[in-house]
Amino acid sequence: MEFSEFNERLKKSLGFSMFPYQEYVSRDLIRALELNYKFVIVSMPTGSGKTVVELFMVYYLLKRGFKNATVMEPTRILCDQMYRQFWKAVFDDVGEEYEGECDAFNEGKSVVVSTPFTANKCNAKADVVILDEVHHAFGDPRYTEALINATPKVVLGFTALLPSYKKYKLDPRISSFLGDPVTMNYDFRTLAKVDPSFKPPKAIADLFDAEMDSLENNVFEVFFRGKVKGNRETAKFLEYTLYSYGKVAFCESLERLRDKVQDDHSFFVLCDSEGFSHKARTLQEVFSIYKVEDYKPVLVFTSRKSTAYEFEKAIKQVAKARVEVLTGDLTKEERQSLVEEAKKGEVDVIVSTLVGEEGIDIPEAKLLVMTDVPQSPLRFYQRLGRLIRNKREEEQKYLVVSLTPKTPEYDNLDDALRNLYAEGVDVSYILEKKEDKGPTARVLDALREQGSTLVPFESLDEEVKLQADGDEDKFLFNLLTSTVSGKEGSFTTYVEKAMRDGKVLYIYDVEEMGKVLFKVLLGKYCSLCYGEKCKRLCNDWLIKIGFLKNVKLEKKSLLRHYMRLFSRENLQKVEEELREEVEKAKSALEGLDYSLSVTETSNKTFTSLVETLNFNVSLEGMTIYPKVSISFYNMKESGLAKLNALAIGYKALSNLRSSISE
C-alpha cells in the first residue's frame, strides 16, 4: 500500500504523518472496496483525524486509476475550512466551489471540495465522492440529486455520529445504483486498543434549544419585524437581551431604557407574567438529563447578573444541589472561597457572570453550560478554558450550549464551533442539531404564514414601503434618477441573510416593474413624437424620462418595493409561471416590429447580477432603442434573473402597444 509515500507527502505539507489507528481504518476501507462495496460509511469520533483518512483514500484511489474526486461538505464554512487547511495543502490539482460557481469542475480538477448544492448545480461528475459529515446526506434532497448526477463508482462517507433513525432516510434511488451503505464503527475504546497513542477529545459538546413560549415569541416578533418605534440601537439591544438572557433581563433593561423606545402592549403582558424565562426553563431541562450528582461540580455561565439569580432558583427547583452565584458583587476573597468550596465538593453548581470567565479555575468540573454565546472570541475561549484546562486523560468532560432557535444566536455559533473544533472538542452533536435553526427559519415561517407563493417584501417589513406622492410620472422620473429615498427596515437584514444562504429567493413583480419599463419606452416615444396622439399620451415628465440615458434600476432600497419573495422549494413553480408570462406577452405582440434581448453581467464579490434589456421597437415611422439595466442583489440563480427580466421586458412592450393602439 502507499502509506509510506503518502506519509512523506503529509509530513511535507502538514507536518505530521498518519497515526497507526488511521492506517488501520484505511486498510479496513480498502478491504471493503475490494469486496465490491460501493457505499461505505466510517464512524470515527471527532478529534480522531477522520479527515486524514479521507485524504489518504482519495490519494489511494487516484493512484489506482480513478479519474477524479468530489469532496462534499455540508456547509460553506466547513467547505472553506477543509479546503484551506487540508485539501489544498496535500493535493496540487485541487479546487473549491461553494458559491454556485463551476470553474473548478469545468477545469477538470482532480479533487474539488464543494457543497452538494453547488455540485448538483454544476452537474459535477466524479469517480469518487467523499461525504464529510455524511449524516447530513440522509433525507436531504440536495445530496440525493448531487450523488445521482455524479454517477460515482465509489462513495465514502465519514461522520462522528450517525443516529440510527437517519439510516432509514436514505433515498432508495441511491441504494438502487450504489447498494445499501456498509457502516464501519470505531469508538474511542476501539481506536485506543488498535493504537495506544490515540487520545480521546477534551470534551463532548451538546446543544439544547431554548424555545420561547407564546408571550416571549410575541415580543420577539415585534422586534424582529422592526415594529418597535424609537432608537434603533436600543431596540436591537433589547431584542438581543430577550433571546440571549430571557425575560427577567429583558424587563430589567426595558425599565431602564423605556424613554428610548415606544412601549408595546406585549411588553407589559410578558413582564407581568409569572414563571421562568425560556433560558431558565431550558437549564432545568439540561439538569434533568445531565444529573448534578454525576457531573459536579458544574459551571453555568451567563452574561447577566439578574439571569444568574434566576438560574439559581430554577436549578434548585429541579435538582437537590448546593447552588451558588458568582458575580462582581462578591469580593475577590469571597470568590476564591467559593471556588475552593466547589473543589472540595461543598458546592455542586456555580452560576457565574462575566467575572468568573477569568477568575474560576476548577479542573474538577466535568460539565460546563453556556446559556449564551459570547460574541468575543476571547471571552468564549476563556469560558471554554474553565472546562478543558488540566484535564486528566481518563476523564470525559461535557460542554452544553443553550441557544434560542430562529434567532441570530444560532448564527453567532459558527465562530464558536471553529474554536471548539480547534481545541479538540467533539462538536458532532452540535452540527447535527444546529442545522436550519437561525433567523432564516423565522423568515421562512413568515413567508409560509402569508399563504401565497410570491410574497411582497413590503408585507413583511412595512418600513421599506414607498409612498408615491402626487403625480405618478413625476414619481417615476424621481425613481429613475434615484432622487426618491427608500428605507431599510430592521427585518431587511434577516431577509437578506436568508437570500445569501440561498433559502429565500425573489423576483421583481412583472406587472409593477413592467409598468416602470413601459413608461421608459413611452418616454422615448414621447421624446420623438408629435401631433394629437402625442399630446394625448405624453406629458412633460414622460418627455423628461425619454431623454434619460443609461436607465439603471440599481438602488437596492427602491428595488425592494418590487420584490416578491418565495422559498427555494417553489423555484420550479415560479420559473414555470414566468415562462407562461413571457409566452402570453409574446403572443400579444404579433405584428409589432420589435426585438428584445437580455445581456448579463455579474459581480461575484457582492453576489449580484445585472440584466440589461436591449429594446428595438419601430412604430408609426419611429424607432426607439432604449437600454434598461435591472440589478439583482444576493442572486445566484442566473436563469431566474434573466427569465424575470425577459418577462418584465415583454410586459412593457405589451403595455406600450396597447397604449399607442388606443
UniProtKB/TrEMBL annotation:
It is an enzyme of class 3 (hydrolase). Its EC number is 3.6.4.13. Residues 282-444 form the Helicase C-terminal domain. It comes from the Archaea. Residues 564-595 form a coiled coil. Residues 31-180 form the Helicase ATP-binding domain. Keywords: ATP-binding, Coiled coil, Helicase, Hydrolase, Nucleotide-binding. Signal peptide: none annotated. Transmembrane segments: none annotated. PROSITE patterns: HELICASE_ATP_BIND_1, HELICASE_CTER. InterPro entries: DEAD_box_RNA_helicases, Helicase/UvrB_N, Helicase_ATP-bd, Helicase_C-like, P-loop_NTPase. GO terms for molecular function: ATP binding; catalytic activity, acting on DNA; DNA binding; hydrolase activity; RNA binding; RNA helicase activity. This is RNA helicase.
